[in-house]
Design goal:
The complex is a heterodimer of chains A (107) and B (120).
Chain A (H helix, E strand, L loop, with lengths): L3 E4 L2 E4 L5 E7 L7 E6 L6 E5 L3 E2 L7 E6 L2 E6 L8 E7 L11 E5 L1
Parallel strand pairs in A: 2-10
Antiparallel strand pairs in A: 1-3, 3-8, 4-5, 4-9, 5-6, 7-8, 9-10
Chain B lengths: L2 E5 L2 E3 L5 E8 L8 E6 L5 E7 L6 E3 L7 E6 L4 E6 L8 E8 L7 E4 L3 E5 L2
Parallel strand pairs in B: 2-11
Antiparallel strand pairs in B: 1-3, 3-8, 4-5, 4-9, 5-6, 7-8, 9-10, 9-11
The chains are: A mainly beta (107), B mainly beta (120).
Chain lengths: 107, 120
């Protein structure tokens, strides 16, 4: 099975900071990688699919990159409404594993 | 508007069974892979199972294989998850989710979830 490892597990940054979250797959998954945002008490929301394609309606400050085993999610200018936990997910083949999550807070 | 509404959660003793359902609307249900994802209290997301649009192909996490069965009724736009031999570690909020594209895709639409509690 493919394991997805996210880092860091949590971070605290100031409004306007550039934030980067990393996701590493234990085997190559091409670009079959999604990023989700889950705000406290809310349903997960798809941000990015195919490693770098922004889902409709998602602010352009979010971007994704990577292929194979290494991926990143970047928030170019952190906003208060971005406080959430972010998850990566492999959907190359079952099991469609999620990363452990990265909790983003405002400093 | 696309909607997913889960039902069937509840309280069950270890070893018991529950059947979750997810009613879909607003899209051509039979064209899309559907899945179940769960989240234990205070924990991260865990993928549980997927089923192809036709229902011919099913996939399971190792943690539920042999105990859970995913199915769908395309005539009723309904997704199901039969959960048997439930364990305390199955306690979670269970989400129904729709694949973004017909085959092999991330989930773009999620339901609000239904809570399953397994305890003696």
């Amino acid at each position: 099975d493919i394991q997805m490892t996210q880092s860091p597990s949590s971070l605290s940054a100031s409004v306007g900071d550039r934030v980067t979250i990393t996701c590493r797959a234990s085997q190559g998954i091409s670009n079959y990688l999604a990023w989700y945002q889950q705000k406290p008490g809310k349903v997960p929301k798809l941000l990015i699919y195919a490693a770098s394609t922004l889902q409709s309606g998602v602010p352009s400050r979010f971007s994704g990159s990577g292929s194979g085993t290494g991926f990143t999610l970047t928030i170019s200018s952190l906003q208060p409404e971005d406080v959430a936990t972010y998850y990566c997910q492999n959907y190359n083949r079952a099991p469609l594993t999620f990363g452990g999550g990265t909790k983003v807070q405002i400093k | 508007e696309v909607h997913l509404v889960e039902s069937g959660g509840g309280f069950v003793q270890p070893g018991g069974s529950l059947r979750l359902s997810c009613a879909a609307s607003g899209f051509t249900f039979s064209s899309y892979t559907m899945g179940w994802v769960r989240q234990a209290p205070g924990k991260g997301l865990e993928w549980v199972s997927d089923i192809s649009g036709s229902g011919d192909a099913t996939y399971y996490a190792d943690s539920v294989k042999g105990r859970f069965t995913i199915s769908r009724d395309n005539s009723k736009d309904t997704l199901n998850l039969q959960m048997n031999s439930l364990r305390a570690e199955d306690t979670a909020l269970y989400y129904c989710a729709k694949a973004h594209q017909p085959i092999g895709s991330a989930y773009d639409i999620w339901g609000q979830g239904t809570v399953v509690t397994v305890s003696s």
